[in-house]
Write a structure and sequence with these properties.
The protein is an alpha/beta fold. The protein contains 7 helices and 7 strands. It has a single domain, classed as NAD(P)-binding Rossmann-like Domain (Rossmann fold). α1 crosses α7 and α4 packs parallel to α5. The longest helix has 22 residues. The protein starts with a strand and ends in a 5-residue tail after the last strand.
C-alpha cells in the first residue's frame, strides 16, 4: 500500500508511521517540517520503507502540487492518506492573536482539505482518507477553557469528513475521522499541564494504523471517538 501521513515527525504521527512500516508491502511517505526528525523516523522503519518528505503542509498549493507530482512518479497511486498534522494554542478565546488563529485554521483544517483535494486524482476505488480530529471537536463532548479555536477547527475537519464521504461515495473512496481523547503527547501536555494521559502514542498508533488499513471495510463518513478518559 502507498500511504501518506502528515505530522509524522513526532507523537502519534511518528508512531503510526512506524507501525505501518512493519508491513513490508507498505510504502509510507512521511510528511513533516522537521527534516532531522524525519531522517530519524526513516531509520526506525520496519523494512526501510518510510520515505521522508520534508515540507510544510501550510506552505501553499505549489508545494502540494510538487508533492502530487512526486507521488505520481514514485508511487502511482495513494491507497491511504492520514491527515494527522495538528496545532494547538492554549489561550483564552479573546487572547488569540490573528497569527494564532490563522495557524490553527491552516494546520488543523485548511491544509488537510487542500492536501486531500490535491491527492484525490491519485486515489482509486478502495482508497481511505483518515482525518485525525480530537474529542475536543466531537459534537456533544466535554469542552475546556482555552481550547475553543483548536476544538472548533477539529470540529470543522469532522464535518468535512462527512461531506467528502457523500461526495466521493460513487468513486469508492472512503473518508473517516478518528477523534482521540487523552494521549500522552506534547500537545496533550500543552492542553492539560500536569495531567498524565492513560494512553501512550504507541498504543493509539496501533489503533490508527489498523483502522487506516481496515476501517473503510466497515465505516464511511463516520466521526468516531477514541477515548477512555476526559481529559
Amino acid at each position: 500500500m502507498n500511504i501518506v501521513i502528515t505530522g509524522a515527525s513526532s507523537g502519534i504521527g511518528r508512531e503510526t508511521a512506524i507501525r505501518l512500516s512493519q508491513e513490508p508491502v507498505n510504502r509510507i511517505f512521511a510528511i513533516a517540517r522537521n527534516r532531522k526528525s524525519l531522517t530519524s523516523l526513516s531509520g526506525a522503519a520496519g523494512h526501510n520503507n518510510i520515505i521522508p518528505v520534508p515540507m510544510d503542509v501550510t506552505s501553499g498549493r505549489s508545494s502540494l502540487s510538487e508533492l502530487k507530482k512526486r507521488l505520481e512518479r514514485d508511487a502511482g497511486s495513494v491507497d491511504i492518506l492520514i491527515n494527522n498534522a495538528g496545532h494547538l494554542v492554549n489561550k483564552p478565546f479573546e487572547d488569540h492573536t490573528e497569527a494564532d488563529i490563522a495557524q490553527s485554521v491552516s494546520v488543523n483544517f485548511t491544509s488537510a482539505a487542500r492536501l486531500t483535494a490535491e491527492l484525490l486524482p491519485l486515489m482509486v476505488r478502495g482508497s481511505h482518507v483518515v482525518n485525525i480530529g480530537s474529542m475536543g471537536g466531537f459534537q456533544g463532548s466535554l469542552k475546556f477553557p482555552g481550547l475553543a479555536w483548536y476544538s472548533a477547527t477539529k470540529g470543522a475537519l469532522a464535518v468535512l469528513t462527512e461531506c467528502l464521504a457523500a461526495e466521493f461515495a460513487e468513486r469508492g473512496i472512503s473518508f473517516n475521522c478518528l477523534c482521540p481523547g487523552a494521549v500522552q503527547t506534547e500537545m496533550f501536555q500543552k492542553a492539560f499541564p500536569g495531567f498524565s494521559a492513560p494512553v501512550s502514542p504507541f498504543d493509539m498508533a496501533g489503533f490508527i494504523a489498523d483502522f487506516a488499513v481496515n476501517g473503510n471495510k466497515f465505516f464511511n463518513g463516520k466521526i468516531l471517538p477514541v477515548a477512555v478518559s476526559i481529559p
